Amino acid sequence: MARPRILLVENNKATQDSLKNQLTQSGFDVDVAEPSESDFFECLETRAKRLEGALEERCRYVSKANSMATVNEQLAELRRETMRGTSEESTILILGEKGTEREGIARMAHTASRRGKGPWISVNCSDSFEPSLEAELFGYEAGAFSGVNQSRRGLIEVAKGGTLFLDEISKTDAPLQAKLLRMLKDKTFHRIGGKTALKSDIRLIFGSLESRNSQENGRTLNEELHQALSHFKIQLPALRDRKDDILSMAIHFARKSFQKQGKIFPGFSTETEENLINYPWPGNVHELLSYIERIALLHEGNEPVNLSPSTYPSTRHQSSTGARKLELVQSPFHLHSGSGDESNGYMTLKKQWHDSFEREYLLSALSKHQGNVSAAAREAKLDRSNFLRLLRRHGLNAQTFRKAA
Question: SS3 of 91, please?
Fold first, then answer.
């Protein structure tokens, strides 16, 4: 770990040397500046630039998909805005469509803040029913529920000194939103069934859709809560609005995905590059990543990837929710180009098609439900244990889909 640095300004040479030695022995790196006004401010400016660069480098990991790396000026300014606000203790509201990396920008704000070494906890509020979510967040006392004999800390207590990110906050009901609003105002909360007010020492960051008027499951963000969060609001652009990033991100994802499959990425054809840029990507970064992973799984040979229109993501949108239906768009006959009976035999192609179908279905289901295994299993009409068994068979980790959301 890098040693902390201190800027030392002292006119007396003997005192300066003594202080520098003491600070160095105490584990600090020391920059010495003469106290003339011009030199002092020049030194401060140089140090500020170095710290800004170090902070930028420190936050590069914010998303597993690395989708915050950008040449798009809109997103670059958004990153600068986020990092300017990291020293604040203010609560942040991050707005954006699904798949726009709300969690990525929240993690960036946490990492760059003074709470960066404290706990980081992320909760997708759509994953839990209201009573269990309230208990998970606020904790409960013994006897709060039938058969509960022990008290339990909630995530608000577990995250003490750090940051708690609550995504899909508008999917929670009004009573829970009101309870969170009270905690924001009073900086205190009660466990369920508890009478003692506990002090909250966390930074809250919320994630939601484009605006409080966007309905999710018939619910909206509480107006008073929305107003309380509006003084630091970050609007994430959709991927279709940052076309200049799409190709560089696709290439980055492809290199990583091909490497995972033990292959070398041969590049995209010119036509494919144009199609990637012009496709609207309704699922944003997450959809792009999932699609590239399927390409890496299926592509064979050293020729540039040249995709026909039939292989592009086939998605239909329900106008009210934006939910996508799963569709299979690949033909099994492209999996092998050999003409021998063994490679094109019925049983061989059937197994290849079955394996390809299973993996693509699982990728699409995890992508659609952002790594929520229970929701994906329900849609697939499978037991959760059987769905997990399929994930293990194909080497898929649901957690990676949560981080990309």
Answer: coil
List, as one string, the DSSP characters of 335-404.
S----SHHHH-HHHHHHHHHHHHHHHHHHHHHHHTTT-HHHHHHHHT--HHHHHHHHHHTT--HHHHHHT
Any bridge partners for residue 198, and if so which?
189
Burial (CB count within 10 angstroms: exposed 0-12, middle 13-18, buried 19+), residue 284: buried
Count of Cβ atoms closer than 10 Å to residue 83 Cβ = 19
In order along its 405 residues, the chain shows pLDDT tens digits of 556 667 676 667 777 777 777 777 777 777 776 655 445 556 556 655 555 454 444 443 334 334 455 555 666 666 666 665 555 567 888 888 888 888 888 888 888 788 888 999 999 887 766 668 888 999 999 888 888 888 999 999 999 999 999 998 888 888 888 999 999 889 999 999 998 999 989 999 999 886 555 455 445 677 788 787 777 888 888 888 888 888 988 998 999 889 988 899 999 999 889 889 888 888 888 888 888 888 888 888 888 988 765 566 654 333 333 333 444 344 444 444 444 444 556 666 667 677 777 888 888 888 788 788 888 888 888 888 888 888 888 888 887 776 544
- The H-assigned helical ranges of 26-101 are 37-58, 73-84
Report the interhelical angle of 102-112 vs 37-58 (nearest 10°): 140
List, as one string, the DSSP characters of 153-167: --HHHHTTTSEEEEE
- Separation of alpha carbons 322 and 333, rounded Å: 32
The predicted model scores a pTM of: 0.60
**At which residue do the structure tokens 């063994």 appear?**
342
Question: What is residue 144's DSSP assignment?
Answer: S
Strand pairing category for 188-189 and 120-124: unpaired
Q: Does residue 194 sit in helix, strand or coil? A: coil
Asked whether the CA dihedral 308, 314, 319, 324 is positive or negative, the reply is: negative
